[in-house]
Specification:
331 residues, Rossmann fold, glycosyltransferase activity, alpha/beta, 2 domains, globular, five-stranded parallel β-sheet
């Protein structure tokens, strides 16, 4: 196909800090056939996603006005800048990821000759949002669904939720589960522990490690992991056992979570290991992988833990039950 005949695909996501939805965007942007598609990605912030896309030679557009919280002055600016981008870059296909940008992006694409696809990475009108915020997002999703040609749900749970609340007609909805590339690289257990624990390796190398990976947002519910750790570490049955909890990641709640751990006097038993590139490589350092989320789509971290053979304990939310059967391949 001639260069000037390639379909132009513009992929949008609200935030550029790396998480599951950003991995999805990166895999899609780099996986499309360059002979058939010209691909670009627009996102808010200045996160690691941009660096990875640059390295992969994918065109990027930074729109700092794109932010997760609702803030009308910034949202209006984002809408206007997105509309300008659509008119100037002239995509054939607009692929929206995350609720905020799906609303702004679909409105900005109205009356333009663009096919609009939206991938739902977990329904935003579910917890942890307040009842008022959930109702607002439900209304916004219903209003803007008419401007989307196809809506991809990464779990059947999300598709059923959209049908239950009449967010969009059934013919617009399709379930396509997330997937992983074959032959993921995992470090052997001891090597993974050495790298991720650093100076603490000698102290904890023979401990049982309960680990988690995620961005520190309320929907990841890491406070519950800390409460569970406190209960486990302070029971008579566990006090003499070598158990430590470790969390890979960062985010807005980091300081408050660290203060909570400090107040429980558990700073030597609940370790914050920071955000690391390709965190999945360290999954074999954990004896158990925990995901206490209150909102999920179909999390890559669960798929990666399964691929690495790490035992899993996870919340019964979103698409997790489509991967984990209780007492069969996890809890």
């Amino acid at each position: 196909m001639e260069q000037n005949k390639r379909k132009k695909v513009l992929i949008l996501i609200t935030q550029s800090s790396l998480g599951g939805a950003q991995k999805y965007v990166f895999d899609l942007a780099t996986g499309l056939d360059k002979q058939k598609y010209e691909v670009a990605v627009a996102a808010g912030g200045d996160g690691e996603l941009f660096e990875r896309l640059k390295t992969a030679d994918i065109q990027i557009f930074k729109r700092k006005c794109l932010k997760r919280p609702i803030f009308p002055p910034c949202d209006i600016e984002a809408y206007l800048k997105l509309k300008k981008l659509f008119i100037e870059w002239q995509p054939d296909i607009l692929h929206l990821n995350s609720s905020k940008v799906s609303i702004l992006g679909s409105l900005a694409a109205r009356n333009l000759p663009i096919k609009v696809v939206y991938t739902v990475h977990g329904s935003v009108f579910q917890p942890p949002f307040s009842s008022l915020m959930s109702k607002l997002f439900l209304w916004l999703e219903k209003w803007t669904a008419k401007y989307k040609n196809k809506i991809i749900c990464v779990s059947e749970n999300d598709r059923q939720l959209w049908l239950k609340y009449n967010v969009a007609p059934a013919e617009k909805l399709v379930t396509i589960h997330n997937g992983l590339k074959e032959n993921l690289d995992f470090l052997p257990k001891d090597e993974a522990r050495k790298e991720i624990l650093g100076n603490a390796y000698e102290k904890f190398k023979n401990y049982q490690i309960v680990g988690s990976i995620g961005y520190f947002y309320p929907d990841k519910n890491l406070e519950t992991l800390i409460k569970a750790a406190n209960l486990i570490l302070n029971t008579l049955a566990s006090k003499d056992k070598k158990i430590v909890f470790a969390v890979i990641g960062s985010g807005p709640q980091e300081e408050s979570l660290k203060l909570k751990v400090k107040s429980l006097k558990l700073t030597d038993k609940i370790l914050f290991l920071g955000a690391v590139p390709e965190a999945h490589k360290y999954l074999k350092a954990f004896d158990v992988f925990a995901m206490p989320s209150v909102k999920e789509g179909l999390p890559y971290a669960i798929l990666q833990a399964m691929a690495g053979g790490t035992p899993i304990i996870a919340s019964d939310v979103g698409g997790i039950p489509e991967m984990i059967t209780d007492n069969f391949n996890g809890f």
